[in-house]
Write a structure and sequence with these properties.
This protein is an alpha+beta fold. The protein is built from seven helices and eight strands, in the order H-H-H-E-E-H-E-E-H-E-E-H-E-H-E.
Amino acid sequence: MVATSSYSRRLTVMMGRKSAKIANKKGKTDAAKAKLYGKFGKLIAQEARSGGADPSSNGKLKDVLAQAKSAQVPADIIERNLKKAEDKSGGDFSEMVYEAYGPGGTGFIIEGLTDNVNRTAAEVRTAVTKSGGKMADSGSVLFNFSRTGLVMVSAEEDEDATFEAAIDAGASDVEPSEEGYRVLTSLEDYASVSSALHDAGIQINAESSGLVYVPLSKVELGDDDVEANETMYDKILDVDDVDAVFSNYL
């Protein structure tokens, strides 16, 4: 009876940890989706305000709308931000890239769109330093990453079919991963490859796709440093004007 009770407690703890991981993953997915939609909302409003809300005469807006469609941004969010562009009193957004070091010698690339550069810089710095990291000089972290297009394909898709469709669409490589298949593209080909895969009926994880920074090498960490880096990642992503965070820890 004692052994059975002990096993039952261990099983309950294991199930509890699994449930917590699933809930945490879902929370991060929801947060990533909200960030993605927010980023496209700002881009749409910005391009429509500067060049007009008609994509037939505004090439930049047309490109952003095509990317938003590929990322499966809901139509109501697109329409809402096109209407928001009619308010000419709104401030212009600036694209910002920050670099930071995390616990254990990791590197972080932080992307954002902001209408107040000083506010965003201060909030990012606070999130980094309160997590045990420090801001880095421009270029000191960036050189360890490659800028590329990433289309994340669902693990439910067939590997051979995914590879064939991706290469035919112009992808540079396809890498299997725990989440599915990482279809890598040049920056210029990202939108066309993403659209081609979507049109072929291949299931894409829009929240994990986009123009990303891929680490050229990764830093292996102990459990404590992994936890500290995950905390830092979450705190940075909580900053309203931050749209994406990339790091090189395992």
